[in-house]
Amino acid sequence: MMMTHGPPMGILDAVRIGEHVGCQHLLRAARRCRPRLHCFGHIHEGWGAQKVKWRDGEELDAIIGEYVERSEDVQIDHRQMVAQRAATIDISQSGEAAVEFGKETLMVNASIMTLTYKPWNAPWLVDLDLENASNLE
Predict the structure, then answer these.
(1) pLDDT tens for each residue of 71-128
(2) Backbone phi, then psi, for 23, in 5-degree steps?
(3) What's the whole-model pTM score?
(4) Which of 83, 79, 86, 73 lies closest to 121 in space, CA to CA?
(5) DSSP for 13-27?
(6) Whose CA is closest to 52, among 81, 78, 22, 80?
(7) How many angstroms separate the CA atoms of 56 and 66, rounded?
(8) How far apart, in whole angstroms, are the C-alpha atoms of residue 76 and residue 53?
(9) Contact, 102 vs 87, CB < 8 A?
(10) Is 80 helix (H, G, I), strand (E, B) or coil?
(11) β-pairing, 48-54 with 37-40?
């Protein structure tokens, strides 16, 4: 899992005028470690989630625009979101939106505020598999 203040370049980072303002170095770091989940905020109008499939290859000097093979927006059932008071997604191995570790990352812009700093967007609740601590030794 990876958590940062701002978004990586080109992923849920578009501001009102359509310009992408994410960090290219953060995109490079996310590609290098390929976490199951990368959660960030900062760009209020970018709230949402995308499932990213990384391109094969580890070259550090690869063109930044070629890091991602494809990305798809996560569709949210708004009635369910209101009822549960959260946007929910299950990316565990048995979940309907399972993420293939090392090949895919769920990118979540969890900014709950609007541009005028009103708490409007729902928080995210993500179900994911974590490695058992006893296996880390």
Answers:
(1) 999 999 999 999 999 999 999 999 999 999 999 999 999 999 999 999 999 999 999 9
(2) -100, 125
(3) 0.90
(4) 86
(5) -B-TTS-B--BHHHH
(6) 22
(7) 10
(8) 20
(9) no
(10) helix
(11) unpaired
